[in-house]
Every structure is written in structure tokens, then in C-alpha cells.
Design a protein that fits this description.
- This protein is α+β, with helices and mostly antiparallel strands.
- The chain has 10 helices and 5 strands; from the N terminus they run ααββααβαββααααα.
- The protein is 54% helix and 13% strand.
- A 5-stranded antiparallel sheet has the order 2-1-5-4-3.
- Helix 8 packs across helix 9.
- The longest helix has 30 residues.
- Keywords: DNA-binding, Transcription, Transcription regulation.
- This is Regulatory protein, luxR family.
Length: 237
């Protein structure tokens, strides 16, 4: 499973069109073993950009009703920085319950988890997965895959920004995928030993990636490197 995901991430780096990215999103849905995958971005000028596996009918309905205005996922995740399970959000209002009922009927799924992403120049995005598992099954599934979801969210956002070339695109220092992985895990609170184990590399190799990233970012230490990478939109935490 992990090798297949790594292969998809390598394919993602080679994507050059929105069509190819859409195909890859569908492949990610199968790899992550969920009903749907959604990437939705809003830049600092309000321009929206999305790639998803929902039905066209549901997308049209969502836009027609301007559901983003009341959607607890959109509104709740905007104020958060870590992955958010949809059931932890407030669906108690009548408009929200109506939205939820229509979404379930449209096949979105009864469960969902979203990774909030903050990119350069005020860009905000969500990478979401949804499914129809039971509460217990969903909790086990997302707990086992949350690290992968965070990393995939970063790579998809990075590629989408490259393709869209919107008004919020700014030049940033280039870090290698492994340098990004290393700093992302440290930003999430992993120790060096835990990060090395998660990436299946030695602590010495991890240190090489960290030092390389620190040099590229002009940072005085590891903490400084993580902070700079976060402010430049290079990491998702």
C-alpha cells in the first residue's frame, strides 16, 4: 500500500495538466480506500479551484445553493490547522442538517476528514476524503492513514498551484520531497527518531535532509527552518 502511494506521489510530480491531475485524484481515491477525494482551493483574490470525485449533479447543486457559505466543513476548517473529522463540527443548524442530508443522498458519504492547507499569499485549501464506514471503522481507517493524508494533501496542493498559476503564485525556494517530508513530520511534533522511522530511513539520513533544507531556507537551526518553510507555504501541518 505504501509503495503504491509513493508511486502515485512520483507520478504527481510529473503531472502537467489539470486533466492528468484529475485522473491522479481518482487513483488516490482507490489507493486511500475511500469513496471520494476532494481538493478545493481559494486564493487571496477569492478565485476558486477544485478537483474532485463527486458526481457532477452534486457539484452543480452545491454551487447553485452556495452551500460553501454554510458548510461546517469549509467554515470550521478555515479556523483550524490540523486534520478535522467532519463529525466533530457543528451540524445542529437546520441549513446544515439540510446540507448534510442532501450530501448523503448524493453519495458523498456519512464520514469525512479534511486537511486544512495554507499556502503562499493567503491561499487556503482543503484536501478531504469521505466514506460510508461506521464510526468505529472510520476512526481506525483515518488513524492509520492520517500521516499519508497530510503528505498527499501537501503534494496535491503544490501541484495544483503549479498548474493554476493564479494571482497568488509567488516564487519559493525549492525543497526536495524528502526534505519536505522531514520538516513536515518535525512540524507535527515527531521526534527525529519517530520521523526517521515513519520515513523508513536512518536518523543520519534524516539529519542530512534536515540540514540540506536548513541551508536552502537560510535558517539558523531546525526550528527556524520549520518556521520558514511553514510561512512560505511549503509544509502542511
Amino acid at each position: 500500500m505504501r509503495r503504491r502511494l509513493e508511486a502515485l506521489i512520483e507520478r504527481l510530480a510529473e503531472v502537467e495538466t489539470v486533466e492528468a491531475l484529475t485522473e491522479l485524484i481518482h487513483a488516490l481515491r482507490d489507493n486511500l480506500d475511500v469513496e471520494h477525494v476532494v481538493y478545493h482551493s481559494v486564493n487571496s483574490t477569492g478565485q476558486q479551484y477544485g478537483i474532485l470525485t463527486y458526481s457532477d449533479a452534486w457539484v452543480e447543486r452545491y454551487l447553485e445553493q452556495d452551500y460553501a457559505r454554510i458548510d461546517p466543513v469549509v467554515q470550521g476548517c478555515f479556523r483550524r490547522f490540523h486534520p478535522v473529522d467532519w463529525k466533530s463540527l457543528d451540524w445542529s443548524g437546520k441549513p446544515q442538517r439540510t446540507l448534510l442530508g442532501e450530501a448523503i443522498e448524493a453519495g458523498v458519504g456519512r464520514q469525512g476528514l479534511s486537511v486544512p492547507i495554507r499556502g503562499p499569499n493567503g491561499q487556503f485549501a482543503l484536501f478531504s476524503v469521505s466514506d460510508n464506514r461506521s464510526d468505529a471503522e472510520w476512526a481506525r481507517h483515518t488513524a492509520a492513514r492520517v500521516r499519508e493524508l497530510i503528505l498527499v494533501a501537501h503534494y496535491v496542493n503544490q501541484k495544483a498551484l503549479e498548474l493554476e498559476r493564479g494571482t497568488d503564485m509567488v516564487p519559493v525556494r525549492s525543497l526536495s520531497p524528502r526534505e519536505i517530508d522531514a520538516l513536515t513530520l518535525l512540524a507535527m511534533g515527531y521526534s527525529r527518531a519517530q520521523a526517521a522511522e515513519s520515513l523508513a530511513i536512518s536518523e543520519h539520513t534524516l539529519r542530512v535532509y534536515i540540514e540540506s533544507a536548513r541551508f536552502k531556507l537560510g535558517a539558523s537551526n531546525t526550528t527556524h527552518a520549520v518556521a520558514r518553510a511553514l510561512t512560505q507555504g511549503l509544509l502542511v501541518v
